[in-house]
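[job 4417] fold queue: 2 targets
>>> target A
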Amino acid sequence: MNVLAIMGSPRKGEATDLLVDKAIEGVRSKASDCNVKKLNLIDYDIQHCRNCLICRDSRTTEPVSKCSIRDDMDQICIDVLDSDALIFGTPVHMGYATGLMMSFLERICWVFAKPEKNILSIRGCPLPRSDRKRKSVTIVTSGIVPPMYRKLCNQAAPLIKGVIKDSLNARTVGDMYAGDIEHKGVECYFGKAFKLGSKLV
């Protein structure tokens, strides 16, 4: 089993990073022989999508279409393609995923999907190019907003869930919101992140 953890915070060693690591520990507690790879998106050259639509309009029968941009997403897409399960971690910035995570999601959308899904008689929505099924979990952190108000500031989790369902054929088996970290600290969320990771296997 190949597990890919994608960390969308620009700050290593802080709350989001630590919770992603705890989720990885949860995975390994259930399947010590699984292959886990963690990507800190801040370490990679991921350029912004240019909306050229070459990937969207590709008629390839391969599970991944070509992007016109040559950067580190070439290798990252191979890692995503090889994955059976995914862990996503991002803080919320103004209620949404970080710019790092947004750039990543924009770049995978049409590379892994084709515009052939019909919703309400509208053709052209993303449909996964591959039938390979994946599972995923999502960790969202907030320094200020407590969990009881998560619906007011957490647009990141539903966005990630929708994109990976439509592009990667990934079913979200769990998500967590770690809020008010500046006051509560992050350690109180370690157990929840560990259990979340264990749900992947």
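>>> target B
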Amino acid sequence: MPEIITAKVPIGVSACVYRCPVRYNGKSFDAVSMLGREGQDFAFTPVCPECMAGLGVPRMPIHLSGPGQDVLAGTARVKDRRGHDVTEALVAGSRACLDALERAGVRAMIVKEASPSCGVFKARVGRKRNEQIEGAGVFGAMLLDTGWFLIPDSALANPLLWWDWRRRLHAWLWLSDREIARSKDIYDAWHVLKFIVQETDRPLADRIGRELAALPTNAPQALLDAMRDDILGALRKPSTRPRIKQAMWKTYVHAKKSGTLSGIDLHDLTVNSPEVSENLMQLVKELTVLERVSFENDLLFGTSPVIRRDGRRVAAREKESPPDASAT
């Protein structure tokens, strides 16, 4: 059985990618429309640190003299195109956004990458558009300190990337909320999530496996918490397209060969190898169908061990097929 999240997921989003015309030039992006009906799984809270900083729309573009972490430490500044220092204003606006997200119960965020405020993995430094360094924007640096699950907006522009980020998000939320009070608890959680971690960081996955094998029956809580943090950190790591394709194909082939899907209506799925580039998006589409088919037939589909389903659908399904009391 897959693990199921029934609560609607609160998720923050940079307002400019949520159709809000808050960019410096008064324009916006629409990164969430590609989710289609899946967007109903989330409760979105759009925020804009630059608007909350009081910079207005339209406004002068801003640039950093160093990554956001340095701005927060006081060793770098934020200035607009005319040289006006807006460091304190942007820091205050970022904190206001963080407060709003915390009130909304947000623990995950879709960020506008390369933004001097919201960027997480790459921040543009300097006045030239092609000047980028590894690091975060000012608000992005604050988000990194929270330990939340952060998703770049580029993930929503590609169904393959979103398929991977979405399953990692659900797995991360599930493990974050799971009670880990005994060695068996962390072992059971690892059994569900280990294949996702292996895809991104095999050395870390092997280390966690060895530590679990050596774990005493009554391990101290601090050790259990540290192991949970290791797994959560691995789930937050961006994967690569080749790895995602390999994971998708490996799981599909295993399900077919093992007979897991035998006797089940696969809705005429005809998946070819993902090496056929024109078939890749079809593979994403059909694997999403397989996830739903697995849920409907009480199967654990390895690529997505944790899925989100509306609580009403789950309750209705359990009413139609109540669990066998003799099996307990």
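[job 4417] complete. Note on B: The mean pLDDT is 84.
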